[in-house]
Amino acid sequence: MHQLVQAAIAAAKQGNKQRAVELLREVLCATPNDVEAWLVLSRLVDQPERKRQCLNRVLSLDPTNQSARAELLKMDRMAMGTPHAQPAPFDQTPSARTSQGKPAPAFVESSPAFVSSSISSAELPTIPPGPFSVPAASLIPRLEPPAQAQPQRSPNTRLEKPLVFRYSGFWLVVLYLLTSISCCTGFLVASQDVARSLPSFMVALLFGLTILSVSSKVEVNDAGVRASTLFSGAEIKWNDIASIKSNSISKKLELSSHKGKLVKISTQVKGYPVVIELLRQKRPDLFGEGVPSSAQRDRSAPGDGQSQSTPAPAFTGTKTFKKSSLTQYSITVVGFFFCLILVFLISSVHINWDFFAIFGILLGVVFGALLILIPFFQVGTVKVEPTKLTLATFFGEKEVSAPQIQEIEMKSVTGRYGRVTNFVSIRLVEGKNYSLGGFPAGEEIIYGFLMNWWNTYRNR
User: Fold this and answer.
1) Region label for 290, one of left (φ > 0), alpha (ψ between -120 and 50) or beta (otherwise)
2) Has domain 3-148 been given CATH number 3.90.180.10?
3) Do 164-292 and 320-457 fold alike per CATH?
4) Which of 47, 69, 117, 273 has the highest CB neighbour count under 10 A?
5) CA distance 286 to 309
6) Packing angle, helices 35-44 and 48-61, rounded to 10
7) Is 104 in contact with 96 (CB distance < 8 Å)?
8) SS3 for the chain, per residue?
9) Mind listing the pLDDT tens digit for each residue in 245-284?
10) Is the pLDDT of residue 89 over 50?
């Protein structure tokens, strides 16, 4: 870390934000691409717009920076009107680390507002062109007296525009292109022989149906959720949701209303974990064991059209999530048959035992062994109790309490062909990570349930 950045952090700890900003200005004048300087500056900025610009600048320089992504996610939660989305000071998460493995900058904001200052915007650096190119002068805050500090936004502030989540645009373009090629081929062949053109039209139809299934769009606003495809759409308000169900076969999350209305949200849209987090914040009771008596009321304020967040149910008893044996060890069976086929080929086919043959066989053996062994290390059972969380694999169990957990996240990984895999990540304070996926209950339900439990007991 740059010495001036360290000095800026020290000045901020002492309450001298004016000095901290001046030091950061010197760093950014000399090295406009200093990620840590932009990250510290984002903590010194009060205005949400400028804070977001600083964080976006960090991500433009370091797209995998976890600290910046976490702060932007907290700001998105605040924009949705959730009272628990205030960004926490860096040293509230002492073990947080940047994507390069270095400790994240830490300081405490000890002054309620900036003191007056006269920073010349002409002396500030100019950011090189990039995806988030903005003048650096616009990111250095205008320091104002406490009397002119801007008021905090109300937790129930409504969004002017809904948040929109779509399927990967790249694969939609590919599917449209393949559909067009198949149709054109079918028409060309049909001009000679209609019967021979049927396979091309069948392929075009298959691609077309695939487009219908992946053209989902999810819109989330302060009133509720809307899911739509090319030819249909359905909407449900937060207060009308009676139950949720994860359908792993159709890759949909089904939201049911009290009147039987069904809204299906595709789990393949980009940003799907954000949709689930917003749903959990608006309706945490959907992920628990029932709504407490204090929440049995009309949650919508009359006349304003806004929803009120429902408190999470009190946790009692024990909740267990368990994979089926077929789901847990199906990859092991595949790996076993792969090894049998490999042994058969070695024993029945004459092989020229040169370097490439030996290397290929060893590679196949390693691949088959991984397929067999990986499921034995995966978490197969999750047991939640008021005082502890038990994660069980084939080789043993790991018991942790809520304070021992640093973070619970729902994440998405996009495969080579656009398929999105969602899973729950549990990171312990000691640094170990556990991934949960493939459970019949659905990753969404497990995530919401664990978050309700963790938020209840993490500070006890």
Assistant:
1) left
2) no
3) yes
4) 273
5) 12
6) 170
7) yes
8) CCHHHHHHHHHHHCCCHHHHHHHHHHHHHHCCCCHHHHHHHHHHCCCHHHHHHHHHHHHHHCCCCHHHHHHHHHHHHHHCCCCCCCCCCHHHCCCCECCCCCECCCCCCCCCCCCCCCCCHHHCCECCCCCCCCEHHHCCCCCCCHHHCCCCCCCCCCCCCCEEEECCHHHHHHHHHHHHHHHHHHHHHHCCCHHHHHHHHHHHHHHHHHHHHHCCEEEECCCEEEEECCCCEEEEEHHHEEEEEEECCCCEEEEEECCCCEEEEECCCCCHHHHHHHHHHHCHHHHCCCCCHHHCCCCECCCCCCECCCCCCCCCCCEEEECCHHHHHHHHHHHHHHHHHHHHHHHHCCCCCCHHHHHHHHHHHHHHHHHHHHHHHCCCEEEECCCCEEEEECCEEEEECHHHEEEEEEEEEECCCCCEEEEEEEEECCCCEEEECCCCCCHHHHHHHHHHHHHHHCCC
9) 998 888 889 999 988 899 999 888 888 998 998 898 889 8
10) no
For 176-218, what is each residue's pLDDT tens digit? 888 888 888 888 888 888 788 888 888 888 877 777 666 778 8
The Cα–Cα gap between 10 and 108 comes to 9
CATH number belonging to the domain at 164-292, selected among 2.40.50, 1.20.58, 3.20.20, 2.30.29 = 2.30.29
Pick 88 or 33 by higher pLDDT. Answer: 33
Amino acid residing at 155: P
The domain defined by 320-457 folds into PH-domain like (2.30.29)
Lowest mean pLDDT among 27-41, 76-90, 358-372: 76-90
At 370-405, the pLDDT tens digits run 999 999 999 999 999 988 999 999 999 999 999 999
Q: Would you list the domain boundaries of the chain? A: 3-148, 164-292, 320-457
